[in-house]
Design brief:
The structure is a homodimer of 528-residue chains. Helices cover 41% and strands 12% of the residues of chain A. Chain A has 528 residues and is an alpha/beta fold. In chain A, the strands form four sheets. In chain A, strands 5-12-11-10-9-6-7-8 form an eight-stranded mixed beta sheet, sandwiched between helices. The two termini of chain A are 33 Å apart. Chains A and B meet through α5, α6, α7, α8 and α10 of A and α5, α6, α7, α8 and α10 of B.
Chain lengths: 528, 528
């Protein structure tokens, strides 16, 4: 084990290994701490280790490199004294600043000092996982990687033909609606169409209860700005959508996790939190949860609404997946049972039509919609009319229903293919859910294998997925990971799962009793 | 004069008259203060006077109604004691809360109390003019009004055919680029295309210096978040784009105005501000300024860049109009002379192609672009790919150049038509600039006529424009107003200007010596 550090290759950019930048030469005469310091310094200064990146703990890096913990400590102290890394309570050691890239930017004849004196509060608040989402997004352009990371729709289901058709037939005649400025609240025709669609699903809303958004993420941000002050608490189920955690934290909110299981948020545990603390918002994905795929049970939904009413706390229902169901009756939104106006409902056409349209919406009490519009317009005058108009036309011509039918069949097949491939290629000790809808498989490794280790191994074969930690709020998720089966073609999906299986087999094969023992000591968190 | 208040009609929603809600019946026996109180209370409770609206000062309402100032004071005190209005230092008296609409929302069976306890800091910071922009935007849907208010492109120039063509020919083959998730920084093809376009205009940038935005407003917000902390100062020229003032203020910045004249920002006055204070950002529209149409002189540009360097302050150049020039050589962006990386450049396709695309961009130092991307992705995963892809195709096929040619001719004709109509229909004492590009005429009334009064008069004939105050940061602009000649068809443009002329003639005709005297006492601010 002590020698393993030496022959590792630098990893592809989509994982953030620190150790791969360190090549120890034990016979060089240079103290080991100095070598570690120098390697990391070079990687930080050259920009290979980006600002905000989290370094491993001293203990874990020491173990990986086969050196004493004090050796790593000395190296880290040196880096910290140069201002290149910084410790943060609760978030570990982060790469702090990247001097070199600022100096050798060809565009710059000199570096304006105001770039160094940036307002740091919000930047820090963005946290160490802020890069995760953008890396996931950028990976779409890296062709050689088989990515099961991104919750994107299948390219072949992106409705290019529907959009071409509505544009060909309607764009010239409606150029002002489709290409002009539109109201901050959104195109009236789209708001009306969405309200009608929601009524069919049991939610009694009308145009004035709908606010069009440029993606759900914008909705989470707007609601946070309106309802939360820095330091306020937000309750989320754990694990939960990592983008929501980021947005809440970036605005200075404290995120409190409530464990979730196969029936969704443990509402029984929620109650004790509400009784003891004063959170300002409850965020939940009740249907085909991201990442677990779980559906909140009817009993828990009732109880959640009861608690929201009793403690007078708004519930933000994030619902991107409920129309992509594979079996049984169509699930209703939580909002359909909301008799007292406590649920703010958020959904999007990014999964059901196309992410590139950037059309999402919120449904809520009219006065809330008005206030949110006021906030929205200051920073985002309006959502792109072209996408709104296209969606509105697709709804108006009743083309959406058939498209959804097609989606459901397609993704059901993908789910079944994935589960079959997992059965074929993975060791039996990996537990995987069987979601009844949505895009995700949630996988749990045995307690002695970390998903980060698996990702590193899999990355060498150019397979990517998302490890469990970013979906957690207090350090859990080390043994979980998420696969998105939606975007890949059949053969790549199967091949990706096969390669992960290979990586798993290799890790299991080189398990030593000592490793197993050490890892077994690591705190095991409740898994769903 | 005393009777004039009685026979006014309620105004269309696009102006915010308070007095129009008040019908005094002097013979009714009900005290006048009580009548004023009751009228305003009804208007607030019914939602006609929206939350956040600024009420006139006691003195000015008293003058308008022909009552004593103490009468208005008593009415205001009554409203304040009921929590319906609230005084704010520096921002006047604002409508505070709208109870009735909260109670009679059919969707609500009861009103969740959390709606009343909203985090108020940012909401207040949005300020009293926050509604102006959304009203301008919403007006696009009110057909009966001739609006010279909105800086929107002419509907007949919205490139529906270009977009249809690129979609027909390319969308199916490029569905992943056009409809999938794209990188936070924007589609590579578009960033490359924009960089090439900017290089032609003298700005040496490449793909990595370009960040795609969902509108310039997003860029102003992102930069503010990155560079400013609450309380920090931003310098703007006065008058300036009202959306920028709003965005800066909403983020807690203090906005300092530097007067501008026909050669743009008075850079000589800027220097003394920089010497005495420590602003963090200078915001300017150097070319075809909004609202004045002025172009900053070469000498001032040089000096501004020199000051930015000497005082190490970034300059945010907002440049939506410079490609829409009517005469002379094509103006270069300020950024073209920026040898030391102090200029952050912002532009948009909203004026040159279509606002409904929501595609704008920023050009700046690479590390700045990286940081801004990080911020952007937390709240806006990415800009709509469909619009980006369409623009990228239009650039790639070199369809943009010809379109710009057409725009320039079209808007030049509109400018000339407008100036001719003004000469034909307006009294000669109104001063109007003759812009060499852009969308706007900036009009200055004689010192005894306020633009608010003119707007009220014009509104009765269903003509709208934007009064000068929202473009100012410290109370100026009462005698100015902006006309946007771009969006209207010829006959409506001329008719709108004619109606404003009628309104002006009426106001001038009923000028009394006493009024002239009173208004003449009002502080007169430097006009450009």
């Amino acid at each position: 084990m002590r020698q393993r550090g030496a022959h590792h290759q630098p990893l592809p950019i989509f994982t953030t290994s620190t150790r791969s930048y360190i090549q120890l030469e034990r016979s060089s005469g240079v103290p080991l701490y100095r070598q570690i310091y120098q390697s990391l310094r070079d990687a930080i200064v050259s920009g290979e280790l980006a600002e905000g990146l989290r370094l491993p703990t001293e203990r874990s890096l020491a173990r990986e490199l086969g050196v004493n913990r004090t050796t790593v400590m000395n190296a880290y102290n040196e880096l910290a004294s140069e201002g290149l890394i910084e410790g943060h309570v609760g978030r570990g050691t982060l790469v702090k600043r990247n001097y070199a890239r600022m100096e050798d930017d060809a565009f710059e004849h000199e570096t304006p000092p105001w770039l160094f004196g940036l307002a740091s509060g919000e930047e820090l608040a963005l946290g160490t996982d802020a890069h995760v989402l953008s890396e996931l997004t950028a990976m779409g352009e890296r062709k050689e990687v088989i990515s099961l990371a991104q919750a994107a729709p299948a390219p072949e289901l992106l409705p290019a033909e529907l959009i071409r058709t509505v544009m060909e037939e309607g764009l010239s005649g409606e150029r002002q609606s489709a290409l002009g400025y539109c109201p901050v609240e959104g195109l009236q025709s789209l708001r009306r169409g969405i309200a009608a669609h929601m009524r069919k699903r049991g939610v009694p809303v009308d145009l004035q209860h709908i606010l069009i958004l440029s993606g759900s993420t914008q909705g989470i941000g707007l609601i946070s700005r309106l309802l939360l002050s820095p330091g306020d608490e937000v309750v989320v189920e754990v694990p939960t959508y990592l983008g929501a955690i980021q947005a809440f934290r970036a605005l200075g909110a404290r995120v409190i996790g409530v464990p979730a299981d196969s029936e969704g948020m443990r509402v029984d545990l929620l109650e004790s939190i509400l009784a003891r603390r004063s959170p300002r918002l409850i965020y939940t994905l009740p249907t085909f949860q991201n990442p677990t795929g779980a559906v909140m049970s009817p009993e828990r939904r009732r109880r959640l609404l009861l608690l929201a009413r009793r403690y007078q706390i708004p519930v933000l229902e994030d619902d991107p997946y409920s129309e992509i169901y594979f079996e049984g009756p169509e699930p209703q939104p939580l909002k359909a049972q909301d008799r007292h106006g406590h649920v703010l409902y958020l959904s999007t056409f990014s999964k059901t039509l196309a992410p590139g349209l950037r059309v999402a919406w919120m449904a809520g009490p009219e006065q809330m919609i008005e206030r949110l519009s006021l906030h929205k317009q200051v920073f985002d005058l309006n959502t792109n009319a072209l996408g709104q108009w296209a969606v509105s036309e697709i709804l108006r011509r009743d083309l959406f229903t058939g498209h959804l039918e097609e989606l459901r069949q397609h993704y059901k097949r993908k789910r079944d293919l994935s589960l079959q491939a997992i059965q074929d290629y993975w060791p039996p000790e990996i537990r995987v859910n069987r979601p009844k809808g949505g895009f995700h498989l949630w996988c749990r490794l045995p307690g002695d294998i970390r998903s980060r280790m698996l990702l590193r191994e899999a990355a060498q074969e150019y397979v990517a997925f998302v490890i469990g930690e970013p979906f957690h709020v207090d350090g859990g998720g080390q043994h979980s990971f998420r696969l998105s089966f939606a975007p890949l073609r059949d053969e790549l999906l199967i091949e990706g799962i096969r390669r992960i299986g290979d990586a798993l087999q290799r890790i299991i094969a080189r398990r030593t009793p000592r490793e197993a023992l050490e890892d077994a000591r690591i705190e095991r968190l409740p898994m769903v």
